[in-house]
Amino acid sequence: MRAAVLHETGQDRLDVLDDVEAMGFGPGKVRIRIRATGLCHSDLSAMNGVLPQPAPFVPGHEGAGEILDVGDRVGGLRQGDRVLMCWLPACGGCPSCKRGQTHLCLAGFMNAGTPNFRRPGGEVFGFAGTGTFAEEVVVAADCAVPIPDDVPYEIAALIGCGVTTGLGAALNTAKVEAASSVAVIGCGGVGISVIQGARACGAAQIIAVDPVAARREAALRFGATEAVAPDELADAKARITGGEGFDYVFEVVGKSATTRTAYETTRRGGTLCVVGAGALDDTFQVNMFELFFDEKRILPSLYGGGDVLRSYERAIALWRAGRIDLEGLITHRVRLAEINDALDQMRSGTSLRTCIEI
Questions:
Q1: Is 294 left (phi over 0), alpha (psi -120 to 50) or beta?
Q2: What is the C-alpha R_g of the chain?
Q3: What is the rounded CA–CA span in Å between residue 61 and residue 128?
């Protein structure tokens, strides 16, 4: 079968090959035919080494498709089911799961260290234990979440990561209050989803911050009340909040510099929500006096900060009700053979989400 492979960490191009085989099928596993997958910035971060991932590997973790085969001891799934990919499934039995913090379960992360593809030259990993830039993938059954028939594959794929992450940051982690002021730094697909989540919560002012003009324009279509370049943020803070700072500031870049800017843009007693996935060696610093005196809440948000299965259902309900726009997030569509074009689009900032049809 065909799959896009990164041979070594640090390479910026993927090699689309037709000699890749999905491996590991057996009890507790399902084989999925991928129909659509989104390109998430985390895929780029894994390729360049910001996020740890053994190589060679097949990127992609935001996918949807249909089940081709079901292994023994798998209940609730059958051949032909339409599913989205959950790259961080909960085991249900670890301390995090028992506390109700299923998004902190480490069982899914352990999958990233087990190869689930092979080629004549050896074994190949799947990013985050999945690897959706492939025609087929074998994963644990709890990674396959059934979707209703009225949800297109490309919409389901987005719900599998970026939409759930962004909406959840606003609804679950920060719990944005009605009539509040919000700033979102970084307006790619996840940042736009944060904006839509803040709008669904009833925020009065939502300021989108991004260096790319096209993304600022897009943010206005998705619910931002104003969109500014990074060097205009200080002026927006002065104009809109009287210099006090915003009630909620979301950092959706994954850099210590932008997190520091977000901290300084948050009002005393306000909430800084860190959504971007950053590097191990990039350190965010805050001095002990300001930490105590400003009493700002610093809340990281992993995968939307809540039960992902419930978050999937909520995203579908909001989409059906017309409260969020998911079709509009897809700015580009490519075939798997054109995957490197999609990477260039994301690097240049010209895309919100590129749908790869497989």
A1: alpha
A2: 20
A3: 7
Q: Which of 208, 306, 206 is nearest to 252 (CA)?
A: 208
Task: Calculate ∠ Cα 154-158-159, nearest 5°.
Answer: 115
CB–CB of 60/5 below 8 Å? no
Task: Please give the Cα distance from 175 to 153 (Å, whole number).
Answer: 29
pTM (whole model) above 0.70: yes
pLDDT tens by residue, 159-217: 999 999 999 999 999 999 999 999 999 999 999 999 999 999 999 999 999 999 999 99
AA letter at 102: T
SS3 of the chain: CCEEEECCCCCCCCEEECCCEECCCCCCEEEEEEEEEECCHHHHHHHCCCCCCCCCEECCCEEEEEEEEECCCCCCCCCCCEEEECCCCCCCCCHHHHCCCHHHCCHHHHHHHCCCEEECCEEEEEHHHCCCCECEEEEEHHHEEECCCCCCHHHHHHHCCHHHHHHHHHHHHCCCCCCCEEEEECCCHHHHHHHHHHHHHCCCEEEEECCCHHHHHHHHHCCCCEEECHHHHHHHHHHHHCCCCEEEEEECCCCHHHHHHHHHHEEEEEEEEECCCCCCCCCCCCCHHHHHHHCCEEEECCCCCCCHHHHHHHHHHHHHCCCCCCHHHEEEEEEHHHHHHHHHHHHHCCCCEEEEEC
Q: What's the pLDDT at 213? A: 96
The number of residues making up the chain comes to 358
Whether cis (ω within 30° of 0) applies to the bond prior to 56 is: yes
**Two tokens at 104?**
């902190």
To the nearest 10 degrees (0 to 180), the angle between helices 213-221 and 189-201 is 30
Q: Is 168 within 8 Å of 305 (Cβ atoms)?
A: yes
Around Cβ 6, how many Cβ atoms within 10 Å? 25
For position 113, what pLDDT does the model report?
A: 79
